[in-house]
Design a protein that fits this description.
Largest sheet: none
Distance between the termini: 25 Å
Radius of gyration: 17 Å
Shape: elongated
Number of strands: 0
Strand content: under 5%
Order of helices and strands: HHH
Length: 87
């Protein structure tokens, strides 16, 4: 869970409305950028997994269970990415 969901922070929607009102930018395409970010992070996690599997990532950099957890989290992000873009 994101720390910002703990309370005292604006919701994603509130923050987006505030940003749009203060900057004047059109934020109607925000889901594209959210999807792109999920995809980008999933690719980075897959790269870490591959480095771990080939021995290029030392045990100090990541333990196997941490890498596996991150990859699963990123797979969920990739699913969210597809949902955001309607695929």
């Amino acid at each position: 869970r994101a720390p910002t969901r703990a309370g005292g922070f604006p919701s994603r929607r509130e923050l987006l409305v505030r940003y749009a009102s203060r900057t004047g930018f059109d934020v109607s395409g925000i889901d594209y950028y959210r999807a792109f970010n999920y995809w980008r992070i999933a690719v980075i996690a897959e790269g870490m997994k591959r480095r771990y599997e080939t021995g290029a990532l030392s045990a100090q950099d990541a333990r196997a269970e941490d890498v596996a957890r991150r990859v699963l989290e990123r797979a969920r992000m990739a699913e969210r990415c597809l949902a955001l873009v309607g695929a």
